[in-house]
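User: Hi! I have a protein structure encoded as tokens and I'd like to know what sequence might fold into it. I'm fairly new to this, so please keep things simple.
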């Protein structure tokens, strides 16, 4: 779960090997990340009300590769400039549990 989510269910996919830039990963590492991201996105779709799950790879905010998976109902839902959600630890755990149950 993203600790500074733009939407409830905002999840990060991070590769096992630490790396700063996604396109410096080996081909098999990128492929594995995408396949795993697809599985997580499908679980998010079932766990969080949304039309689909958007994906973003921004890569400048922290020095490690990661993919953002964000439940969306309209394109503006992925605007990282908007105010981020403030969720309690209990809310995070509840959403995480719902996603894990669908995985």
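Assistant: Happy to help. Inverse folding works backwards from shape to sequence: for each of the 103 positions I chose a residue that suits the local structure. Here it is:
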């Amino acid at each position: 779960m993203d600790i500074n989510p733009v939407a409830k269910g905002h999840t990060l996919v991070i590769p096992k090997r630490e790396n700063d830039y996604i396109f410096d990963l080996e081909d098999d590492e990128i492929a594995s990340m995408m396949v795993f991201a697809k599985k997580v996105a499908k679980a998010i779709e079932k766990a969080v009300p949304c039309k689909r799950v958007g994906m973003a790879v921004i890569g400048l905010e922290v020095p490690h590769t990661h993919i953002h998976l964000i439940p969306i109902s309209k394109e503006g839902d992925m605007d990282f400039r908007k105010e981020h959600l403030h969720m309690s630890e209990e809310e995070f755990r509840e959403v995480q549990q719902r996603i894990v149950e669908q995985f």
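A useful reference point when you look it over: The radius of gyration is 13 Å. Feel free to ask if any position seems puzzling.
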